[in-house]
## 1
Amino acid sequence: MKWLVLSLILFSISTLVSAQEDPEDQHTLPVSLSELAATADLVALTRVLDTDYEYTREFPRGGTAFLQVLIPYKVARALEDILEVYDEGLHFGECYFKNPTVLEEGRRHLVFLKFSKDVEGQYNGLVQGCKLDVLVRDNGQYALRFPVKGIRLADDLSPHAIPMEFQDPYASLEDEEITPGERNELLGKGFLKAVDQHYELNHGIEISVIRKLMGPEGLTLDRTLK
């Protein structure tokens, strides 16, 4: 009888601890595009202009990224000329952007952002992450990078990935940018091709497909706020 009571007590404690941990664990679970869009205050296709970060070795530990909006999809207040996106610390879903050099254009991303509670006019990323990589096709149109990079998505996007050619330098990968296991898997599936001393991505997902998957909550745009 004592063992039964002890087991019930331990089970109750374990259940209570798990319940307390669940909210944090939810942040690490895959999330759908529709959930991201519904949660965000701003959804837009952007280009990185500049960053102002403090670094520990090669890793940013806090600061602001400055983004240009190329295509707005969801706007909840008057759209700033340049978005300021702040983050600090190292954590799951961190929202840091790579700073372009003077010789290159900034990377393009589909971003999901929340209004900052601390600084008026600033934005923060969502807890699940804030950006998905976007590439420029040879016809000048935008496409979501495939395989998807930036946020763990619950959506299976592989049926929507189609062969594409890119004029975007970020579609080119050097050996140090990809693990041997990932490289061999992508080569085997035909999502990567070897070119001279580097590799090139050759599949993407049309932005029109991503817009549909984000659902109506991801396309709530008041034209007067542009």
Note: The longest helix spans residues 2-26.
## 2
Amino acid sequence: MTTQPNHRLSPSIKTFCLSLACAALTACGGGGGGGSSTGSGGGSDSSYGVRVLHASVDAAPVDVISSSGSSALVSQQFFAGDKGYRSLPEGSQVLSLTRTLNPADVLASFSVDAGSASRYSILFYGDLQNLGLRTRLIEDEGPEDISGAAIRVVNGVAGAATLQVSITSADSQLVGFGQNSEYIAAPAGEVRIAAQRAADGSPAGSLVVNAQTGRAYTVLFAGEAGFYTKAVLFTDR
């Protein structure tokens, strides 16, 4: 995990950053697909590879560059963007998370030994005021057998040390900041996922997933408690 120095942002600047991110997501057709985006996302869409879970509302967009290639695998991943996996070269390599259009500004680096069916998520979270920006590499090892659907939750909400998450037909889960739950069995069909800050019950977002049989999903809760939060859906497999 890496932490960047604190640089305090005024509320007006944070709002401006959020407006830019929302505008970018609208222009790109951002929504809840999590794996169907095409175009300027870097490498080609894939069922395997690497993706970024960008949860920091006041952080710049980011790219992912592999030491095994010269161009960005993931490019221009904004806050709460839903780009899915991008294809990844096989073999030992270093994945670098960089600020978009500035590959020399490396936020974090991770050594991986990727196979043909490897899946990685880079969680980019925290803030520029109190916590610093943080990163975490998650190896996405989904459940082998899924009778209905499977859903896991990632807590990227700054100011929420713990989220209490409810999923249709499942017991509520507690998920720490920067952590993820295990995959939770869910029925195929309409599934509602909602989260609230465990400390005071304030809502942190919700969404409804049309879960398909045999599919696994990740729901990222992103943003900052008391300012702006958003739930983002990614398809894992």
Note: The two ends are 26 Å apart (CA to CA).
## 3
Amino acid sequence: MLGAGLRIHRRGRLRNPRLVSDTLELHMDDRCFYGLREVDHRGETAPAPAGFSRRDFLVTSLASGFALAAQPVQASAITTSSEGLTAGFVEVPVADGRLPAYRAHPAQGGRFPTILVIQEIFGVHAYIQDICRRLARLGYYAIAPELFARQGDVSKMSDINQILSEVVSRVPDAQVYADLDAAAAFAEASGKADGARLGVIGFCYGGRMTWLYAHHNPKIKAGVGYYGLLAGLKSPVKPQDPVDIAAQITVPVLGLMAGQDSYVPNAVVDQMRRNLRQGSSRSEIAVIPAVDHGFHADYRPTYDRVAAEYAWNLTQDWFKDHGL
């Protein structure tokens, strides 16, 4: 039953986030399963395509719907209205060009707290754009840069292994940090965002990057990472996993994990908790039982409405409790 063993107040604030049974043991190797399909995470050191240059932006605009590999879209997919919001495509200046991004904020007023939204492996498609609008309706300036723009257009790829091996594995973490820094600077320069009140949220791939970006940028107020991989993805372009830097993080991050997630074994979650306790970030990890990876992604079969709403309430409280 969702929330068993939790002590909560207000709209679901964590008081005892340790929900994982120590008796369940899962093991991660080079391969995982995405639904019923085997996914190969290897290929981290694959050579770049001939003629590839960091200056080549393969994606110059965002997906207008859901990524092909995310099909078929479930009827539960949520569409948040943009009425009363300023929302849509923008271009963020970066050192080597202009990065496409989606941003949303209330149409009236300004100097809103800023939330960087970090995408899944499917890029800044309809779901991530909707997350920005949901945050805007809560009074935030939300911006999601297309972090894979130089490596490929994942929204048009139908094969998940192709996305992982040809695009995701080739995106350097350092490049992501720089692009998120640029998105934050773009938001502040707009005059609508308060750069001193900066947070970050990420899903799947973005959940992993939330922990890493919190380590990179200690000026952010808080982060929330949904079911991000905590270990097992290190490579020359991804030199650290979240478990490696957990003790060094000073930003409070809330990790929202799935109790039946084969991507993130309970043993790794426990290791992450132990490492976090060695630091001073006051980060917390909640594992929501009986749900799978992607439980918040309303367009996917793994979506769980009760768990998603519960986690979203925790997200809102976490940001508010930390000045956002």
Note: Helices lie at 126-137, 160-167, 173-189, 205-216, 242-245, 266-277, 305-321.
